[in-house]
Design goal:
Rossmann fold, single chain, alpha/beta, 39% helix, binds zinc ion
């Protein structure tokens, strides 16, 4: 895009920017550090290509360093502090709003920064009421994932396990370094059990660090990963996000805010 094109884009009705949000963090001995960034960027590209032309939606440059303190014991991991990331996203979001864009979607593929992006989205909404902000997580809310993955993978396959390994085998075979994912030893055979009632993720989560759970960096079991599953996952992800973007683009979101009620006294 040139600047006149950006200006024209911003002035479109419902103009929407999507910011692919990844991380630079260990993904076991078999997947690259850029795994999350690769998924955010490439699933987004394919999703946008599947939309009818002339929809008012554009992709921003990918954010390839995120918030990954849980993986910092593993070389290659780079992480911004929460404060830096909040400030950076706020700065960029305010500029997007002042250019006149109407919506900003975070298309995030790293589970460890979901909460942070939700918090900064609320802050941005207060600071820039004209901008709708939608913090999405690539793997959340996707219908059919439960049918493709085992219950154990859904619950315990938190990192570099069957889903991510299969998707990478399908999308970029050459980025899967070797067959080490087939090695039982690198899978966390048994997830460390949390105190009764508490969980790693979900309702009552513990803020775990990877080294609490795994010496290889894999959390879950990658040994049943395969390219056919990867293709099915890719289809499910693209179908879902295509339908979510279409629904948003066909809507008037954000709503016109209610005026503050006038006190009758
Ligand atoms: Zn990942």
């Amino acid at each position: 895009m040139t600047w006149p094109e950006a200006s024209k884009a911003a002035s479109c009705k419902g103009s929407t920017l999507v910011w692919p949000f990844g991380a630079c963090e260990q993904h076991g001995p078999h997947l690259p550090l850029i795994t999350d960034t690769f998924f955010a960027e490439n699933i987004l590209i394919k999703t946008l290509e599947s939309l009818p032309e002339k929809m008012p939606i554009w992709m921003m440059p990918s954010q390839s360093i995120g918030f990954s303190p849980e993986h910092q014991d593993f070389p290659g991991t780079l992480s911004l502090s929460a404060n830096v990331l909040l400030s950076m996203v706020t700065d960029v979001g305010q500029q997007i709003a002042s250019m006149g864009f109407k919506r900003l979607i975070f298309f995030n593929a790293h589970g460890g920064q979901i909460g942070l992006l939700q918090a900064v989205s609320r802050q941005l909404r207060i600071q820039c009421p004209s901008l709708a902000v939608l913090p999405c997580f690539l793997w959340s809310g996707v219908p059919g994932l439960d049918n493709l993955l085992t219950d154990k993978e859904v619950e315990e396959g938190l990192h570099a396990a069957t889903a991510e390994t299969s998707l990478m085998l399908h999308m970029a075979n050459d980025l899967v370094q070797n067959d080490s994912y087939l090695d039982k030893k690198i899978s966390s055979e048994e997830i460390i059990s949390t105190p009764k009632g508490w969980s790693l993720e979900g309702a009552s989560p513990c803020a775990w660090l990877t080294k609490d759970l795994s010496s290889s960096g894999v959390i879950g079991d990658a040994t049943s990963s395969n390219v056919e599953l990867g293709a099915a996952l890719e289809n499910a992800l693209i179908d879902h996000w295509k339908s979510m973007f279409t629904s948003l683009l066909n809507s008037d979101w954000p709503p016109i805010m209610f005026e503050r009620p006038i006190s009758s006294s």
